[in-house]
């Protein structure tokens, strides 16, 4: 796969690029002739994706970086590797993330600390490194993956929801700090979506996982459009917009009760009667 030397196209770095939203972001940027830096834990899956994008979009410039962002050292290693290769990142998409389902007093602390490292620390670390370069050039864009649960507490997914609340607050604070510069920071807030998230979070049997799910293509497109417009945040999906709006009106106790219902395992009685996702 060719490097990015000697061309004038802009370059995007996408974390968690091997599937789900990350894969759809890669397609959107490839279609718009960006150079791609794709980061994920699975090198084989990334290479497969890279060859597929090359065939579909006649992609000429691609960099594959195998990295596990639940490791504290990974962001600096990624940054140093790209610096060594002379790759300038114009757009940063902090997409990688994970959750864990269950009562907090019963779940594994090690997994939750890894989630905090992945969902918060790596986002902060990568943003710090690449944003400093963007400020020096006075140009750049950043997209951070938040969530509908950024607006409300989520029992049975407590750590994940708290990390996404951090991402939203962090993103909107940076947007204000950078308001006088040619740099934008956008938060994408999707709801339950048809990705591997629920499986990896051990939440496949929850009501949320078995209700209506947004398509990764739709969510990525909403995020991409908001990023290009320089919006501070976008909630993907009409029902999710309603839910986000309701979060400003309802007490946190009511929001927590609603989210707990969604994150509980779906019963046999639930399966008899279709329900709408709240």
From TrEMBL:
Q: Does the keyword Oxidoreductase apply?
A: yes
> Listed GO molecular functions?
oxidoreductase activity
Q: Which UniProt keywords apply?
A: Oxidoreductase
CDD domains per the record?
A: SDR_c
One Pfam family name is adh_short
SUPFAM superfamilies associated with the record: NAD(P)-binding Rossmann-fold domains
Recorded superkingdom: Bacteria
Sorted alphabetically, which InterPro entries does this protein's record hold?
NAD(P)-bd_dom_sf, Sc_DH/Rdtase_CS, SDR_fam
Q: What is its EC number?
A: 1.-.-.-
> Under which main EC class is this enzyme filed?
oxidoreductase
PROSITE patterns cross-referenced by the UniProt entry:
ADH_SHORT (PS00061)
Q: Which PANTHER family match?
A: ALCOHOL DEHYDROGENASE
The text of the family note is:
Belongs to the short-chain dehydrogenases/reductases (SDR) family.
Q: What is the official name of this protein in its record? A: SDR family oxidoreductase
**Source species of the chain:** Pontibacter populi
Question: Where is the organism placed in the taxonomic lineage, from the top?
Answer: Bacteria, Pseudomonadati, Bacteroidota, Cytophagia, Cytophagales
């Amino acid at each position: 796969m060719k490097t990015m030397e000697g061309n004038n196209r802009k370059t995007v770095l996408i974390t968690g690029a091997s599937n789900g939203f990350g894969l759809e972001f890669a397609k959107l940027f490839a279609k718009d002739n960006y150079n791609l830096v794709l980061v994920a834990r699975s090198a084989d899956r990334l290479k497969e994706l890279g060859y597929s994008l090359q065939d579909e979009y006649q992609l000429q410039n691609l960099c594959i970086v195998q990295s596990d962002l639940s490791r504290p050292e990974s962001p600096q290693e990624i940054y140093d590797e790209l610096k060594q290769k002379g790759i300038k990142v114009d757009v940063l998409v902090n997409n990688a993330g994970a959750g864990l389902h269950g009562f907090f007093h019963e779940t594994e602390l090690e997994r939750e600390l890894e989630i905090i490292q992945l969902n918060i620390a790596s986002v902060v670390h990568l943003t710090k490194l690449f944003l400093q370069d963007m400020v020096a050039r006075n140009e750049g864009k950043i997209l951070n993956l938040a969530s509908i649960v950024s607006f409300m507490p989520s029992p049975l997914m407590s750590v994940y929801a708290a990390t996404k609340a951090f991402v939203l607050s962090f993103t909107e604070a940076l947007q204000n700090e950078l308001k006088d510069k040619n740099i934008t920071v956008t938060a994408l807030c999707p709801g339950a979506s048809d990705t591997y998230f629920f499986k990896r979070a051990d939440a496949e049997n929850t009501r949320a996982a078995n209700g209506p799910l947004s398509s990764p293509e739709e969510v990525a497109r909403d995020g991409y459009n908001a990023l290009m417009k320089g919006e501070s945040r976008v909630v993907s999906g009409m029902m999710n917009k309603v839910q986000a709006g309701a979060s400003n009106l309802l007490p946190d106790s009511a929001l927590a009760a609603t989210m707990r219902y969604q994150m509980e395992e779906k019963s046999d009685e639930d399966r008899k009667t279709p329900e709408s996702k709240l």
